[in-house]
Amino acid sequence: MSSNSNPYQNALTQLEIAAGVLKINKDILEILKVPKRILKVYIPVRMDDGSIKNFEGFRVQHNDARGPFKGGIRFSPEVSMDEVMALSMWMTWKTAVVGVPYGGAKGGVIVDTKKLSKGELERLSRGYARAVHKFIGPNIDVPAPDMYTTPEIMAWMANEYSRIVGENTPASFTGKPVEVGGSLGRANSTSVGGIYVLEEALKKIGKEKRHITVAIQGMGNVGANAAKILYNEDCNIVAVSDSRGGIILKDQRPKTKDQKLNMEGLNILKVLEYKEKNGSVAGFHGTKTITNEELLVLPVDVLIPAALENQITIKNAHDIKAKIILELANGPTTPEADKILDAKGILVVPDILANAGGVLVSYFEWAQNRMGYYWDEQEVNEKLKKQMIRSFNDVWAVKEKYKVDTRVAANILALERVVKAMKLRGV
Ligand code: NAD
Question: With the C-alpha atoms ordered 221, 226, 227, 233, is the resulting torsion angle positive or negative?
Fold first, then answer.
């Protein structure tokens, strides 16, 4: 068993650890180690200058024993097949941990969206939907947003799919704007769900949410919404970052020898206004620059990675001082780092549980689309809260039963559910 910066290797290592505890049949493990289907497509797009540019895209479908494949689409210049494969496997576990009737998939297109005009982005998005349309659909595979894809992009894709199949098919994509069949509460569901499980985790370490200190890496959909919720609930967000840099209050430094931070946090609403205008949090007045490396090892109560994979590794895990790590990003911690964090007594709320609020409300959206009957936001949030807390407690029970860390516990719970479905199907 080895792991490195290749996210797929890390996903395999995590699978092998959980399979080892459960003593999973070797043949089943062989099936689960690889995706069921990998699509690689080239999407020709007419650029604004009249030329044609070809973009490479993927859709990886890992497992559908528990229901249609489900997972987001990532638009990024760095996205790779290995990354999408890992993310598709994590989706299989995530949908199982929170008990929604789906399997796992993920998509990606190699593109820097910041370099495209709106028209080019729309043509690329529609092109992706056309390229994969035969392999997706409400009963087959239901994509959703991920990094650098938005509700508007989902609206274009669902519209393109509907045009191809000749009928209005909103349940083909989730994460759409409310006006075209999106669910109320979907936009910030990943962060809302994450904060529900954070509250449960805080109870386990005997801490209250109010006045905790928090550092957040990533100020996109997930990071910014989590920051807003925590700020509105009197938490102190001492540092945040995005792809262009990080910030911390100028006078924010450990005050005493036991490294307690100054209890004043950033005014997140103002920081986000500034980011909206300037494209980044970097340079916000009254702050100084902080690198990603520095942000991750701040002596905060809660560290929230909400950007990329492989941020907490063997290199920095020893220096992490947070009491809880809430993984709103997918795959931010490597298996070697997990061992170190566990030995240090840091409570990691693993990605497949912490950020599952997004797929939960995607499931609610899909169900509402199929019923043609829509819930109000309160109903969505009540269902989200109930299912997130139940999932946290399910994972905690497995953790205590097998005496393992929370990631291994979540993977065990997921694997048990997936393997049961595979066996019932006669695999
Ligand atoms: P997004 O595109 O809205 O935002 C990504 C953010 O990450 C941006 O603020 C960007 O500046 C920042 N970033 C990129 N590189 C960075 C770097 N090197 N250092 C610091 N920040 C950096 O994406 P998102 O939807 O918020 O997704 C963030 C993470 O959450 C991803 O891992 C994604 O897979 C995961 N996630 C998202 C959802 C969802 O519903 N959107 C659900 C589950 C998990």
Answer: positive
Token digits for 379? 């109903």
CA distance 90 to 88: 5
User: Whose CA is closest to 71, among 80, 60, 83?
Assistant: 60
Q: And the tokens for 399?
A: 């953790």
Q: Tell the residue nearest (CA) to atom 27 of ligand 1.
A: 147
Residues 6+ apart with CB under 8 A from 260: 254, 299
Write out the two tokens for 419. 């393997």
Query: CA dihedral in degrees (184, 185, 189, 192; nearest 10)?
Result: -170
Furthest-apart CA atoms within the chain: distance in Å: 67
How distant is the alpha carbon of residue 332 from its chain centre?
10
User: What integer pLDDT is reported at residue 4 of this predicted model?
Assistant: 55
- Residue 61 contacts by C-beta under 8 Å, 6 or more apart in sequence? 35, 36, 37, 38, 39, 69, 88, 103, 104, 105, 135, 141
Annotated catalytic, 40?
no
- The answer to pTM > 0.85 is yes
Mutate to test the pocket of ligand 1, among 142, 146, 148 (most ligand atoms within 8 A of CB): 146
- Which single residue is written with the structure tokens 């006078």? 251
| CA dist., res. 399 & res. 342, Å (int) | 12
Tell me which residue of 195, 171, 228, 180 sits closest to 362, measured CA to CA.
171
**Count of alpha carbons within 13 angstroms of residue 347, beta-carbon side:** 21
Please say whether the beta carbons of 177 and 166 come within 8 A: no
Catalytic residue (choose from 70, 94, 106, 399): 106
In the chain, the domains with their CATH numbers are: 37-180 (3.40.50.10860), 189-354 (3.40.50.720)
Amino acid at 252: Q
Answer yes or no: is pLDDT of 273 > 70: yes
pLDDT digits (tens, 9 = 90+) for 59-82: 999 999 999 999 999 999 999 999
Strand partners, 76: 110
